[in-house]
Design a protein that fits this description.
Elements lengths: L1 E4 L5 E8 L2 E7 L11 E9 L11 E5 L1 E8 L3 E8 L2 E9 L4 E5 L7
Amino acid sequence: MLHDHRKPRPHFDLRLEEGGVLRSWAVPKGLPTSSRHDRLAVAVDDHDLDHLTYADEHKTVAETGWWEEESRDDHRIVFVLHGGSGARRYALIRTDRDWLLHLVKDQPPR
């Protein structure tokens, strides 16, 4: 799921259900639209599953769907997001301080 936040500064929250919680990353500039331009993804505290449908005057649900993990190691998670606009393959890459969200060049067939 993807939350669209308006405060304190506009950003998106990427939330992936895993182990009974929503693992979450704040993505200030939204999901990448090109494999040439990675986006900063800051890991934030996990959220309870009831947060999936949470919205208020500063937060709306921008997209829902499901995710499929393709590979993982200590520094990288490759996954496919399945949502209303189709399926897109991404990689979350751990850096020294944060994460980068990368749109993988090899995409699933549309």
